[in-house]
Amino acid sequence: MKLKNKTQFVSILKKGILFTFLLIGIFTSAQSLEKEAKEKINNLEKLIKKAEKKGIDVLKEKTTVRTAEIFLVYANWDEKNIEENEAYFKKMALYKDQALEKAKELPDFERKDVVLMLNEAIEYLQLLLDKQVFRKPSPKIDWRKVSVEGDQLTFDKRPVFLADYTWKPNTKRLTEYHGDQDGFFMTPSYVKKDGTLIPGIWSKLINKSNGSLGFIFLNHKSAPKWALKKYGDSLILPTDRYTIYDIDNPGAKDFQKKLIKAVVPYTAGRKFSELGYMLCNEPHFFTQKTGDKLAWASGPVTEYTKDKFRSWLKEKHQNITSLNTLWDTNFSNFRKVTIKIPIDTNLRGTPMWYDWSLFNMYRVTEWYKFLKSEIRKYDKEAKVHLKIMPNLWTENKRAHGIDLESLTEMSGIIGNDSGAEHNRMWGAPYEWEAHYAFEWRELCMGFDFMKSVSPEKINFNSELHYLSTGRSRNLYLDPQYARATFWLAHTYGMTASQIWFWPRREDGSIPKRSGNGYAGSNSQQPRITNEVSRTLIDLNANAEEIMAMQRQRKPIRIFYSKTSAINKENHMDDIYHLYEALHFEGIPLGFVTKNILEKQKHDDWDVVLIHKTPFITQKEFNAIQDYLDKGGLVIIDTESLKNNQYGIPFTKTLKSGKGSLIRLDSREEVKEKAIALIEEKGLLSNIIIEESNKVDKKGCVWKVVKNKKGNDVLSIVNVGKSDASLKIRLKDNSPFTCIDIIKGIEVSSNPILKPHEVYFVEVVNQL
Questions:
Q1: DSSP H helical segments within 681-718, as ranges?
Q2: Distance of CA 616 to the CA centre of its chain
Q3: Burial of 46: CB neighbours in 10 Å, binned 0-12, 13-18, 19+
Q4: pLDDT tens figures, 568-598
Q5: Shortest CA distance to 470 belongs to which of 534, 532, 518, 416?
Q6: What's 602's DSSP letter?
Q7: What gap in Å lies between CA 291 and CA 340, rounded to an integer?
Q8: Radius of gyration over alpha carbons of the chain, in Å?
Q9: What is the C-alpha to C-alpha distance for residues 303 and 235, in angstroms, rounded to an integer?
Q10: Using CB atoms within 10 A of its CB, is residue 697 exposed (0-12), middle (13-18) or buried (19+)?
């Protein structure tokens, strides 16, 4: 650059000096923070040694040290790679306009978070040493020695809960304290036409050690080239899904049979397959549109699917006249039946919509039954599961092909992809935002449904989305939120989880696959990552009580009808609002369906609530009537059980039989009557909780179980948007004390819980 005069030279020199001082300042700050963090690690390690000599369990503190060490490495990488982090922050709606600023701040944010985390650990360990608080020991779990036993994971003869992260590198530094899950990945492109595996995968499979507890991931994002050549391009669907091929094409069964036969004999009976075979990642087969606008992930189906649909219609309706009458069509025979797929959402509530939606669920369920049967040929003890997004059940849509009840029944492990959102980066406001600190509908209601269907199985959340989702992330997330969601999920049935996600290599670098979801996620949040581990440690220290909460009898059951869910636009909103009304009363909730009424013992519950469920099949009606005939108790509103699946009015109404049939209309009446009936039967806990807060709805979710000493153990999580003032008392007003189980000290029985706060106490009667 050519300088015009001395003044310009001086100006540039000053700017250069200023920039140099800025860099020096940043470097000095980074050095200072890192030095402070390392000194605190040293101090904490000295206290750990002192505590170990006194017999104090220090698993939490050792975990914190490791978390600190990991994130100091990450901070140094981030400091040298500002541009790369800026590019990721630009992909995040919340920070895209501040991307450079956030990228520059990130290294010191992480270091400050590490220092704060270490300070908290030092202070608490000093309290333990001074005997101002006390701690129950928690097992340091060896994943190689954990086994699946019924509805629990067992280690050293005790139930345990496990968590790891998607994509976390398999190095001792990262697996010693943050999860050591094993497994094997299989995808159709691995198998050759002759049924053998490609050499590299074959070598990897036969040389794989028994390893630690893990699962087999069946991927469906590829198809073998030989299969495409043999079955044609129509084998691949023009839709962005995790299953890219047509499950109704005969080629799909051909290559899956070969792949399973080649792999499963070598995974059978291995520790790394004991958590089961995950049959699909986030299965969904949306087939709907509104006008010309396709719904998310929706697409066409092939003639193979339509032919299968015609056969299904023939078996269901028997004669074409019956179908024509229902559909208002004039097909000459079933072979002539045509249907436009994706189906228009405006047809919801019509017989055509119902038949297609039900068939779509049927064909998908049959596909996964096929995969299960093939796996069982070579691994007779195999358990299967699917990474099902529970919002496909808790929300209203039903043209996605996923029948959560049937697939959960079929599986040996309850599989899911449960999530919770804590903020919203775009889109219209959600209903939950007005009242709650985070969205708990999918977590609580979804788990209660799946555990109602299969109470005897473990629950494996193989892609946990509590910390971050595509549209819910916050770099400054409160660590107590992590505790609240993980605590809640485990009390509601979760056994093991693979957390989304760990998008960093051990040196802190970011693989390209990390994508849009990296910025603002837990791999930039030391205290969030550490709080997850600390929460699991606390859960495992009290695993018997947490399992007792999972196994609680669910005396109040809400009737779920797939028929109404298919036909009604907002059916699951109506079901949720009834569930929500009862959710904060300390009473375990569950669901019944036709299948549950027919297959499970009726004395597992006391009352069934039927709410805003106008459409049911004759078989559903018969199951409810049979329950009443055998002495069951039903509360029903005037909107329910009016029409069959095709909108044709029922001529019969329910009769009380040997049971009791109560008709009520308002949700509040139903709630009050259900609770009164449970109270009459003496099934309410000995604890009464009064809550007051600044919003118009309760926000504290609570559960009560007995411990081995016969005392009540009370778990409360404030999911509400404001502080909650609680008054806890016993029914007989006898005196008692509340002992904080985590801290081992007496605490107030009238606590004020902040949003996300967990209150976990033993209630000791003083009489």
A1: none
A2: 29
A3: exposed
A4: 999 999 999 999 999 999 999 999 999 999 9
A5: 518
A6: G
A7: 12
A8: 28
A9: 11
A10: middle
